Amino acid sequence: MTVHIIRREYVEIVRRKSFVIGTAVAPVLMAAFFLAPVLLSFFVPTQQFLMAVVDQTGEVGAAFVAALDDTLSDGRAKYVATLVPATGARFEGARDGAVAGVRAGSLDIVVAVPETVFEDGRAGYITKEVRNFQILDDLESDLTDIVMRRRLAREGVDYERVASLTTPVRLEMSQITSKGGVEKKDFLTEWAVVFVFVMILYASLLTWGVTISRGILEEKSSRVIEVLLSSMRPRQLLFGKLIGIGLAGLTQFAVWSLAGIAITGMGGAMALSVMASVDIPPAVWLYFVGFFVLGFLLYASIFSVVGSICSNEQDAQQLQGIVTLPMIIPLLTLMLIIQNPNGPIAVVLSFIPLFTPMIMMARVVIVPPPLWQVLLSLALLAVSIHLAVSFSSRVFRVGILMYGKRPSLREVIRWYRLAG
Amino acid sequence: MATAAIEVSGVVKRFGDTTAVDGVSLTVPQGSIYGLLGPNGAGKTTAIRMMLQIMLPDEGTIRVLGEPVERLRTDRIGYLPEERGLYKKMRVGDLLTFFGEIKGLRRGDARERALAWLGRLGLAETAAKKTEELSKGMQQKVQFIATVIHEPDLIILDEPFSGLDPVNTNVLKDIILEYRRRGHTVVFSTHMMEQVEKLCEHICLIDRGRVVVEGTLPSVKARHGRGGVSLRFEGDGSFLRDLPAVESLMDHGNEVFVRLRDGARPEALLDAARGRVTIRKFEVAEPSIHDIFLELVSKG
What we know:
heterodimer, A: alpha/beta, 2 domains, two-stranded antiparallel ribbon, B: Rossmann fold, Alpha-Beta Plaits
């Protein structure tokens, strides 16, 4: 009996257009996410900047123009600079003339370097577009470099010597990886990968939970449930539905995981994208599937209670909203957990069964947690799955034959006792 | 008729403070067409759900097809619930195959029978359609097929005639009669008395959770129909009510049904009416189930 329910649920879901699209589109999005940086670099806007360098010093301007060698992705020079020598009193007039050019649109940028630059380190940057910090950075570092060289030369100090003596110290972030090696890691990439895993888990648990709740509601309101119950025990029906829908979800996860392995592998092989620095060991994909299964069993049994005690779509949606609330907590705390994956907040949250799948998933991706914590959280999760399933199957038995007003919590508890 | 198809004894079912079924006992003989009658809310659906073990009784025992209901093999029963519905998004052929399978048919067998039934009811071309694309009448037929696809020994139909058009009423009647011919048992609940008169051999009238009367149709009529007269006339018939021979009178509009007191002869009524009204019809008749129903229910 149960096997027929499983088959029906599975086949009917897998045939749906939404399932096929969802299963196929997610890997495409995943690929886009991981490979986008590579692809984007081919499509960055290729704008040239027309620039005038008004030079009062008579020695900085030429070197500065020569130093502006940044190129666009299509190979053209990013800055097309004209040197305007304007020593002494001519400086202000020349600068104002250039600024008029910016105002008129014939120039994009004016850099005005006064004589005093060697003393107070100030020069002018006049433009209409103040939001492009990249340009400011480029110009600033080039100009600084040149002015510093002049200053040092005036003092008779060797620039190269100073540069090598004042090399700053950089801390490079590294992580012990599953392969036992040490790899360089980048925080942003790390965060993105964790976020993607946790979001997919969240979205899937929510989607499949709602699917089971709606399925039960449909059977209830169409009275198909009575025909089913005249043929099998309520428990067989509920388990058949859980397993059938769970298998459909698992199918989707298997597709996604395989696609994920292929895509990250591809990104790594191409050494082009951010993925080159991402290490997702196979174990993480196993955890991914495993936490989906466990999370599904917990949330699906809760959602099945929603479906079985409601008689109409509005009531069900309200209750689904309430059930969804605890699922948001892992998302809200995700940043904290990524910053401190073995800290007290992360550890405590990962022991709360409603949060375990998502929080543990995040922790596993960042830094493998101590084994005892993984085992303890899994044990707690297993116990609560057991409780949730037995609670829901008892409430289910009574609820599916009750129509009308949504029952209060007290009534639901009475049904639970009644069905004992 | 060796064993009873269903034996219900002393069954009680309560929901909170209300007692839906209050000490019901009844026996459905094997191979009969059995009508479960009663006004809305009398407890018919609850009684049926207990016979199907969808619900468990608080008290009493139920035996179905010779077995205690807990050990019942559900594949021997077909059930048509009162408010009917199907999986909207499923294809008709798949749906019927599924219903056959959960009743123990093998997949291929179930599909074969589904197609045969669809052909027989003129729905052959719908097998690949989704049920939501079918008209209401077609969906009703699909529902009948789902009830009988596994050839159960017993079919239980809850208010099967409500909402059917005349064509589907006949389709269902044919299915019921065919089942009867093959020696199977049919139980249905209804408050449509014409169907009861035409189809049922046994009836059971339930009101407020209790059995009011049970037995074969003729025996119920004999017990409660102490003879009466169907009368059609022109003129003022108000005097009829006061005649000594008349126990009660039911005015149906064009016709009145007069129940006579014990021992009173119909001729006495005819004599009294002659001259006062113009008689168009005078027929000595048994009371209809409809009248018995109304009388017994309003009495209680």
